[in-house]
Specification:
With 401 residues, this protein is an all-alpha fold. It has helices at residues 3-25, 37-49, 67-79, 83-108, 111-123, 125-128, 137-154, 160-176, 183-195, 198-227, 236-244, 247-250, 274-289, 292-306, 318-325, 328-342, 350-365, 377-400; strands at residues 55-56, 59-60. A hairpin with a 2-residue loop joins strand 1 and strand 2 (59-60). The longest helix is centred in the middle third of the chain and has 30 residues, at 198-227.
């Protein structure tokens, strides 16, 4: 009996993603026109599968993190250059993510909350969408939920091998999307509250950080050999910081908090490299520190875009907006209610709060985008499911009375 809800959630989630990919996206359409990132991922994967290395146009690449291209390369090596196979596998990964949402919900709240969360995750558009594109979000969200579930399993029974395994998964997460490098530092505060011992919390957080670096360091060495410069994972982040934090965007009401094409940023040149983007970013931030109100305005717009009910992409269609309003737009108030209700529990959901804060922080550092919210969507589903479960329980109790 225990497996029945999990199987139902898995089958429903897989079928929903498959239907989306076949009848909405088109099973052979990688969506590269809408999300050009996919072109780089595709070329890198083809080069890896062909044995020529991690390169584009015969030049070693440090612009994209390697996790997702290696995933694609494995698919291409086994099944050929097939977008259909990638989409089917991403649909399976998305279905497994829904199962993890169930398991996390059961352990943090209740079996009923877990079942409701799994049902929502199976059909929730923002957890289905990315399975149809050559984007790292589907793989990253799955690895994120694996890591979150491992932390929840370790609560009350911290073992060194468990911490090591969780740290390795965190390293793979960052090799896929390097937006959780600061997470061990934030987890220290959660661990301190959980354990009540500052020294042990620091030790576990430190071990998570050290094990996180184990899969990252070989790639850092590869980057140094290829470029003769220190690049931890990729140097794409300097471009991201540059296009989201600059003087030009501050004067554009419809763009502030988001990002601009590099060519539109004042002072940008075609010859710009990572060092130039880095210098531009730090110059801008020094200027903003002298104008704290402008800095607060910029950060406020970033958060607005991060939590926006309508997707912030310039290619968002009216259909996308309607779907978002009637899915995320309905889930968000439920999730906020769920957060409030969860603090009535003996065990407070601080882990989910810290998790959400990490990705908000990444948005504040770079720029606001609904894509950055992808690993937070399952947490919103969990809190929304909790609110629905409590409402159902209250209604049932009133009926019995």
């Amino acid at each position: 009996m225990r497996m029945t809800p999990l199987i139902a959630v898995f089958v429903a989630a897989f079928l929903m993603r498959l239907i989306f990919n076949v009848y909405v996206m088109g099973i052979d359409d990688a969506g590269i026109e809408r999300f050009p990132d996919g072109k780089d991922y595709d070329e890198l994967a083809l080069a890896l599968a062909g044995g020529t290395g991690y390169e584009i146009n015969q030049s070693p690449n440090t612009f994209r993190p390697p996790g997702y291209p290696f995933f694609l390369a494995a698919v291409y090596a086994l099944a050929g250059h097939s977008y259909a196979v990638v989409k089917v596998l991403q649909s399976l990964i998305g279905a497994l993510t829904s199962i993890l949402v169930v398991l996390i919900g059961e352990r943090l709240f209740s079996k009923r909350t877990g079942a409701i969360a799994g049902a929502i995750a199976a059909v929730y558009p923002f957890l289905i969408l990315y399975s149809g594109f050559l984007l790292s979000e589907t793989l990253f969200v799955f690895l994120s939920m694996v890591f979150l579930y491992m932390l929840i399993r370790l609560r009350g029974n911290w073992t060194w091998w468990g911490v090591a395994l969780a740290g390795l998964v965190l390293g793979l997460m960052n090799l896929t999307r390097p937006v959780a490098l600061l997470l061990p530092g934030l987890l220290f505060f959660w661990l301190w509250g959980e354990l009540g011992v500052k020294r042990r919390a620091a030790m576990i957080a430190g071990l998570l950080a050290l094990w996180m670096l184990v899969p990252i360091i070989p790639w850092t060495v590869r980057n140094y050999v290829a470029t003769q410069s220190f690049i931890l994972i990729d140097d794409h982040h300097w471009l991201g910081l540059h296009i989201g934090n600059n003087r030009t965007i501050m004067e554009m009401p419809d763009k502030i908090g988001g990002w601009l094409e590099p060519a539109l940023v004042e002072g940008s040149r075609d010859s710009f490299r990572a060092a130039d983007y880095r210098a531009s970013y730090f110059s801008f931030m020094r200027e903003m520190l002298q104008r704290p109100l402008d800095l607060l305005r910029l950060e406020g717009y970033k958060l607005m875009r991060f939590w926006s009910v309508v997707p912030t992409s310039s290619k968002t269609t009216p259909r996308d907006a309607v779907i978002s309003i009637f899915s995320y737009g309905l889930l968000l108030p439920l999730a906020l209610l769920g957060v409030a209700l969860s603090f009535r529990n003996v065990e407070k959901p601080w882990l989910l709060i810290v998790w959400t804060l990490n990705f908000c922080l990444m948005s504040l550092i770079a720029f606001g985008s609904t894509r950055f919210r992808a690993p937070v969507e399952p947490v919103l589903v969990l809190f929304g499911a909790l609110a629905m479960e409590r409402a159902w329980a209250a209604w049932a109790a009133r009926g019995r009375a």
